[in-house]
Each structure stands twice: as C-alpha cells, then as structure tokens.
C-alpha cells in the first residue's frame, strides 16, 4: 500500500505513467539525439502550457476552502510565475527563441487538449480534482529529470540538452516536485475516500496520457 496519494495514483496507472516518463522524446533528450526542431517546438508550446497552468494555479486559490489551502495554492502560483516561467524564458533564449516569438506563437492541438482538460477538471470538480490533474506535470518532470541525470553522458557538454536536464534534476525543481507531493496529500486529507479514488485515478490517467501526447507533439515536429 502506497504511503501517499501520488504514489497510489501512479501505481494504478503504471502503463500510462511509463509511456509518459519513458517516452521516446524523453529518451532522445537523454542521449542528445532529439532533432533540434522538435525541441524548439516543444519549448514554445511548453511556455504556452505554463501560462495556462498559471491560470489553473489561480483557480486553485479560488477553489480553496481554507486560508491554509489558499496559501498553498498561492505559493505554487508564485513559484510558477517568478521562478519556472523565468527559467523557461532563459532556456528559450539560449536556443534562439525570443520572448516575442513565445508571445505570438499559436497553441498546438496537444497544448489545447491538455490545458483545457486541466482547467475544465478544475472548474467542474473541487480543489482535489484540480491538484490531481496538475500532478503528472509538476511531479513527473522531477522524476524525469532525476532519471535522465542518471543516464551516462546525459549531463556532458556534448549533449545539447544537458542544461534542460540539469534544471529539472537540480535541487530547485526537485524541491518543487516534493512540495507538490506534500501539498497533494494535505489537500486530499479531508476529501479523499476509497469511493472517490476511482474518479481521481481516472483524472490522473487522462492527464498522464495527455503528457505523453505533449511529448509526441514535439517528436512529430522532427521534420
């Protein structure tokens, strides 16, 4: 039996989770073989995704039922707007993608599908539904970063994606991922039940599949 909600959801969705964290796009980042066009397209779409994710974090404040829950959501929103977005803009600049390009880029269908699913889940459900929909992204990237950092040569200067791996494997993002796990448990405590776990698993499974589709969107851009 898992000791926290995230691990329980991940175990219930093992095939989908592996398809996400072990996607060919992820493996190609690790060995440096990912086509540059794929990575650049992914970076632009991920920026647009993060904007929508910030709205989801703001929705979490509205959906909160206590001041403590509002503070948790606000801390997550602040970290996204002030830290992760700035990091993303910096990474994009390093790949020759200016903020003007990011601002005027259209959303890909995979971006629309994923972001609207998260927001729709939050609007129709409660705070826990929303946190579960956001968990594969927030926590999954931490797992992917750690996994890729352990790949021989992944962090070598010869890998063009070493900086991206280092950011998500680094202490800063690992702390964000661990905090997201803890926050999920705190939000779940007064709300979760065995009867509800099936619904939460369905939300988690769909969000995880959409994460894999997001990688595939980047890979399909290899032309």
UniProtKB/TrEMBL annotation:
CDD domains listed in its UniProt record = TenA_C_ScTHI20-like (cd19367)
One matching Pfam family is TENA_THI-4
Looking up SUPFAM superfamilies in the UniProt record yields: Heme oxygenase-like
> Gene3D superfamilies under this entry?
Heme oxygenase-like
Q: Which GO terms describe its cellular component?
A: cytosol
Where does the Thiaminase-2/PQQC domain start and stop, copy by copy? 14-220
Instruction: Give the molecular function GO annotations.
Output: thiaminase activity
Q: Does the keyword Transferase apply?
A: no
Record keywords, A-Z: Hydrolase, Thiamine biosynthesis
Q: In which pathway does it act?
A: Cofactor biosynthesis; thiamine diphosphate biosynthesis
Tell me which domain of life the UniProt entry assigns to the organism this sequence originates from: Bacteria
GO annotation, biological process = thiamine biosynthetic process; thiamine diphosphate biosynthetic process
Reaction(s) this enzyme catalyzes, per UniProt: thiamine + H2O = 5-(2-hydroxyethyl)-4-methylthiazole + 4-amino-5-hydroxymethyl-2-methylpyrimidine + H(+); 4-amino-5-aminomethyl-2-methylpyrimidine + H2O = 4-amino-5-hydroxymethyl-2-methylpyrimidine + NH4(+)
Q: What class of enzyme is it?
A: hydrolase
List its EC numbers: 3.5.99.2
For whether the record's keyword set contains Flavoprotein, the answer is: no
- InterPro entries from the xrefs? Haem_Oase-like_multi-hlx, Thiaminase-2/PQQC, Thiaminase_II, Thiamine_Salvage_TenA
**Family that this chain belongs to:** Belongs to the TenA family.
Function, please? Catalyzes an amino-pyrimidine hydrolysis reaction at the C5' of the pyrimidine moiety of thiamine compounds, a reaction that is part of a thiamine salvage pathway.
Q: What is this protein called?
A: Aminopyrimidine aminohydrolase
